Amino acid sequence: MSALHVRDAAEADLPALIVLLADDENGRLREDPSQPLDSGYRAAFAAIEANPDQRLLVAISGREIVGTLQLSFLPGLSYRGAWRGQIEAVRIASQFRSKGLGEQMIAWAVERCRERGCNMVQLTTKSTRLRAHAFYERLGFTPSHIGMKLHLV
Question: What CA dihedral angle connects 26, 31, 35 and 40, to 10 degrees?
Fold first, then answer.
């Protein structure tokens, strides 16, 4: 496995990123990687790209996109006005899992949060993803809160 390179996503990366998002038991139910891509994906990409506090990232090993995540920088009043980094939509392609790439990708994202002066980094992971919980805890994340969602659609 060659070194992991992380960069901001380009619109041309969208088909590969949607395939990654659909490459698990939960994503299969909610994502549609068929071509042409749903226009909602392009609209979301444009909104992320236009916001300096949002980054959609791709992880590349060799010449292949092997992972993705979204990194958001959130201002807040709590902790004396501290910023926090929010990591979402983390995926490593199934054939590349358990090779240390996810750890490299998360370490890269945490370092970007440090550079932005964030007080903390947070993420959510589905309650049924026990292997993901163990992975994040191994990287130093603690299960300090209970996340809740209200789906509107």
Answer: -160
- Res. 24 pLDDT band, cuts 50 70 90: confident
Which residues touch 33 (CB under 8 Å, ≥6 apart)?
15, 18, 19, 21, 22
Q: What is the pLDDT of residues 84-132, one digit of tens each?
A: 999 999 999 999 999 999 999 999 999 999 999 999 999 999 999 999 9
Please give the structure tokens belonging to residue 124: 């959510």
Q: Shortest CA distance to 103 belongs to which of 2, 4, 17? A: 4
Q: Is residue 2 over pLDDT 70?
A: no
Bridge partners, 60 (sequence order): 5, 65
pTM to 2 decimal places: 0.92
Residue 105 CA to residue 120 CA, distance in Å, equals 17
In this structure, the number of other CB atoms found within 10 A of the CB of residue 7 comes to 12
The CA distance from 49 to 152, in Å, is: 24
The DSSP-derived string for 53-95 is TEEEEEEEETTEEEEEEEEEEE--SHHHH--EEEEEEEEE-GG
